[in-house]
Write a structure and sequence with these properties.
globular, 33% helix, alpha/beta
Length: 325
């Protein structure tokens, strides 16, 4: 199943033409509207006019997590605050990140998240338990996308007593949560003499804020007897829909109409163009309006899978060598 078959099965030549058009636009937009990018590009000796083909992206400087942690969010902002529809502030063990979104940003993220959900087999007949604090913008994207495809959403919150109460009332067949909250649910059920496998949950989507695939994944699959899909959701990206798994479970598709992926050798600026060679995932947002990320080094070790997936999607896939998909 596809949420947008026309895009997800787009011919590579057409997709690359779309990527170039959007890359040129976002570079020009960022240069003219963001103090941070204007200064960064000038120090690198590059201008928007230098981007004539996709490979010219290598002329642009990298963006690192240290940049995002050190500078004021407003220096990255390309829009007036009057154009901002949503603010999301995330604080974790590594620091704090503030993300700002326009109406267009939110619309793009909901569209991409709908693709993620449909690729995992969710339909308008699905009953989905959504664990977590809905003050987190990443969860809001998921809720809106679930409602877009017509699935029934059961917001479970963060209180385990609410989890247990609602699971007795509603026959939840899909659970979307972080691995940590899923494990808490398993433990709380066990403490009341119950087993999660006795509930009709057949599918779990794991929201992974740190890694593309969580090391708890196999344990969760064994404890729940379900199929687990990963959603990569780092705070600096600000959404959980950049990568997604289809039912083939052969790597993760990159939403290439909205993100341009590069593989760069670790501790180097050199591109890695071959398939099946491990390198660092670097991404550029192609349609972000409020806070574009240009050549952001994610720190994630992946390898590229270019051949068309058995699901028929033409988006390139990436996989991590540390976890079997």
């Amino acid at each position: 199943m596809y949420a947008n078959a026309q895009v997800e099965q787009m011919e590579r030549e057409k997709l690359q033409a779309l990527q170039l058009e959007r890359l040129q636009r976002v570079v020009k937009w960022s240069y003219s509207k963001s103090h941070f990018y204007q200064d960064s590009f000038q120090r690198a000796g590059v201008t928007p006019e230098d981007i004539k083909e996709l490979s010219d992206i290598r002329k642009l400087p990298f963006l690192r997590i240290s940049n995002l942690r050190q500078i004021d969010s407003l220096d990255l902002l390309t829009m007036p605050l009057s154009s901002i529809l949503r603010l999301n502030h995330i604080a974790d063990a590594t620091g704090e990140v503030t993300k700002l979104y326009t109406n267009g940003d939110i619309g793009h993220q909901v569209e991409m998240m709908a693709r993620c959900l449909v690729a995992a087999g969710l339909t308008n007949a699905s009953v989905v338990g959504l664990q977590g604090d809905l003050s987190d913008s990443r969860l809001l994207d998921i809720q809106y996308a679930l409602e877009l495809i017509g699935a029934m959403v059961v917001p479970l919150g963060t209180d385990y007593r609410q989890w247990l109460r609602l699971m007795e009332i509603v026959g939840i067949d899909t659970l979307i949560s972080t691995p940590q909250l899923i494990m808490q649910l398993i433990i709380q059920l066990q403490a009341t003499g119950k087993n999660i496998i006795d509930y009709p949950i057949t599918k779990i989507l794991c929201i992974n804020p740190v890694n593309i695939a969580n090391p708890l994944q196999h344990h969760i699959q064994e404890r729940t007897c379900t199929k687990v899909y990963n959603l990569y959701a780092p705070p600096e990206i600000g959404t959980a829909c950049m990568l997604y798994q289809c039912e083939a479970h052969s790597g993760q598709h990159v939403q290439e109409d909205f993100y341009y992926p590069e593989l760069i050798a670790f501790n180097s600026n050199e591109p890695v163009l071959e398939d099946n060679c491990m390198a660092e995932l670097v991404i550029t947002t192609l349609a972000a309006e409020a806070m574009p990320l240009i050549r952001y080094r994610t720190g994630q070790a992946v390898y590229r899978i270019s051949e068309t997936c058995s699901c028929g999607r033409t988006f390139v896939r990436v996989a991590t060598p540390f976890t079997t998909f």
